[in-house]
Amino acid sequence: MARYTPPTQGKLGQIIDVIVLLIMAIGALYIPLWMGLAGSAVTSTAVENPTWESLGQNETMVAQWEKLGFADAASAAEMITARFDYSFSVGALLAMIVVIVGYYAILLRFSEKEYREVIAEKFEE
Amino acid sequence: MAQTDTTEHVGLARVLGPAHVWALGVGIVLVGEYMGWNFAVGKGGAYAALMACWFAGILYTCVAMIDSEVTSTVAAAGGQYTQAKHIVGPLMAFNVGLYLVFAYTMLEAANAITVGFLVDTVATMSGHEGGLDQRPFIILAIMFLAWLNYRGVLATLTFNLVITAIAFTAIIILFLSTSGILGVGEMNHAALMSGQAAMPYGWLGVLAAMHFGLWYYLGIEGTTQAAEEVRSPARALPFGTLAGVMTLAIAATLTWYVCAGLMPWEYLGQSGVPLFDAARLSGSTFLMVLLGIGTLFATLASANGCINDASRAWFAMGRDKYLPGWFGAVHPKYRTPYRAIIFLVPIALIFALGAPLDQVITFSILSGLLEYTFMPLNIILFRRKWPLDTIKRGYEHPFHPLPAMVLLGLCGLAFFAVFLGYGTQLVAMIVFYIVVSLWFHFWRYRFVNRGAQFTMPWPKPRGY
User: Fold this and answer.
1) Is residue A1 part of a domain?
2) Which residues in chain B are contacts of A6 at CB distance < 8 A?
């Protein structure tokens, strides 16, 4: 097999490659944040005139809340009533599975193709 | 580029022993006991967080076993990246390299956020009104540690060894002081975990808690990044990594026991510095100061190790031209990958200064999770291509392929756990990796030498 000689990349090309990679990475991480799509699906229930009892807190819990600086039930109500929403559609779950499996399938397929070239050149020189 | 060509083949200095490997692994992760793990309580309640802690412990035991075998053979900078390059193929290696860089850089950002939060909390407790601007402390922490890494790996990891030991000792002292072993016990598990507080989301909450359960241990696999700088890789890497997992399992359980016995789950699940809060609840000024120092040291040790690991992965990819070769340079005096260290500083700052803590942690966990999913594939292919009688391993992990199968199953559970509540980030991140993979395969890979990137003195793999 003929040995592959890679082209030399100039400084400008190197800079462009780094910028492209950075844009993709920062975009992937920040776009969901900017679009308000990221974040935990947490909601708090508004409770009028909450008491420790109505928030389901027993004597020991109340003592600890007070030590933590929450003087009354109203100040801790938002924290106590915060709950995740774990409802999801089967369609969304299947989409996630397809995306993950598809990703690894692409990785393994392309990697195998590249790997065969590497082994061929390394061991047939 | 002339400078790159003359410096890129200079090796890193082999100066580290097993204790440094332990300190690198535990140092990165121990901060997970000081902050972040408690979001697992928020996702499923206290019992769910404990179950998640132990399931994640099984996951990381599999990771450590698999990783120790491969690393005791592939002892080169870049860790799992270099493993993937030799065992699976270049595209997988490129992805694994990015997993490492993003997992560690996001963890570094999370640590810096916690430093800022801690300083603000202490200032408020000391009577300062109106809150502090946390940004200067975040910037200072990242810049100082980057400078330390720039100056040399031995000093960096010796610094880590000391501050990690102090942070670990602080957890033990807090446990002994509040559990009743020394002095009066203050634990209230039964009362704080009764009624709806026991399992607020039922068994679905246990699954969901696996998401942040990984945070108890995330980063321990970073020990392999130092492979090229360890004096005896075949002995030090398995020993340091497995000792690290055991240390963390103990620390995680003690941390859960203390915090779940002192705080209502609703507070614990949203706390920024849970161990420090536990010390506050003990009423002891000594414990409060000790755990405040422990939190600071744990975050600094972790960020320090993260800079070390992320820069090694970036450096290794630059050296192979997977990334521009300019990054593959070693400092002529300090023998560190200085360009990679400097380049990653602003990226860490962007996220530390601009994103919420739970998001940054989730980004880090997702990259880690993708990496752990690669590991079972890696070890199965490694054993298939080079059976035990073809390459001498420094360590052979037992019961193959059981650990690989267990790891794959637990990774599947963890993906589902992230999907519950953070599905958008999961899909966005995987779409990013798909796009960047296509960019690598169809564009970037043309600059890579084919045969020359295979550097291990191994025989030809079976089946090729």
Assistant:
1) no
2) 321, 446-449
